[in-house]
Amino acid sequence: MKHLAAIAFMATAVAAQPWHDVVAYPDIDTYFNQPTWDTSVWTQNTVVQWPAGSLPNSCAVQMAARGCAASHVQVYNVTYSDCDRPWVFCRCDYAPVPIGRTADVFGRLPVHMRSMVRHPMIVPNPDGQCCCASPDNGDLMVAGDCQIPTFAHEIGHLIDNRGDVYGEDFSSKPDFENALAADTCSISNYGNVNGRHEEFAEMSIAVLYNVHTGLLPTVASPATPGCFNNQLNTIKNKFGSQFFAYGGTCVNRLPDSPTQPASMRVRIKRSDLVGRAGWCRYKHDSE
Ligand SMILES: [Zn+2]
Which residues does UniProt assign to the signal peptide (predicted)? Predict the structure, then answer.
């Protein structure tokens, strides 16, 4: 039921009007998964599991909302070589992805993108799809073996929401609106019909790859090379070196969610479940 509720909410949030008649990469992941993986920079990590009995509050809430009781939540300190402070990951013990796999993929993102995330969580994946959500508090839920572009999309929401002025979405500001209007295509089918937030998040996939390599995959016909360059350059100028470039160390990280006993009763509020970024992405893979 919770799952259905999330889908219903998403349906109401969808703006059906497309930005453009043409999109550059209809199913963007098929264009970016392999090139992004092949060019990503791996960062060494160490994983240390917490003793059973306590977990971050937001993990308890998000896991409980997905039917995973606190007694089934594993907590890990994942420390990367480019940041002294670990990320505290939470994993439902019957989730389909091992901690090492997700810690590795997360570590292939630039440290400044990782710095936007509070708690990565590996949640149950009952319908077998890779499905992620990123409420505005910086928590990032992974429900399957998500690839780097999926993380880039979700962290793109966090950069959109917090990267410029905290809480003021850059995708709703004139610089981005004008760039999108000036372009002759949208980045993807998903970005084209789900509002500016999703267009920005989809663009984040292209920005990550382009900042690092200077390249872009060939666009799908009838889109033409450069058809989303206004968006690309606007995001790169604003956020490219600050977030999307590899190198450096962690900065401006959010404090961890308070630790609580696993035995503590969990209250789930609707606002805990769906931030402005909402459930998104990979539901459309089943269409
Ligand atoms: Zn999204």
Answer: 1-16
